[in-house]
Amino acid sequence: MTLNFNPKVEYILENDRVLLRPLKETDFEFLLPFAINEPDTWKYSYLSARGEDGIRAYLTDAIKNRAKGTEYPFIVFDKKTGEYAGSTRFYDILPVYQTVQLGYTWYGEKFRGSGVNKHCKFLLLQFV
Rounded to two decimals, what is the model's pTM? Predict the structure, then answer.
């Protein structure tokens, strides 16, 4: 395995159930309803995205860390429902040690326990 993420490349991970594409500032509109209407989603989060300011800061931080090459965040689209479900990412990307972690994952309430996470993690593990 060679761990080499290029932060400028738009990696798209997809199977029959989910599509993961790089998180962008314009995804604000898709994620804002979770930030406003589902406050419990952020109860135990290291980086809360609660409210309009929270989700803006979350996106800014994720995209900044992607540019630095330390993280690679994705927005998750559930093909079964035709809706955006949340976000997941690679983080602590350390090419010198050939290590990466999966996490910063969250989904809206209706997507939890739906199988979305299993499909996302499978795609992420296949990628690395």
Answer: 0.93
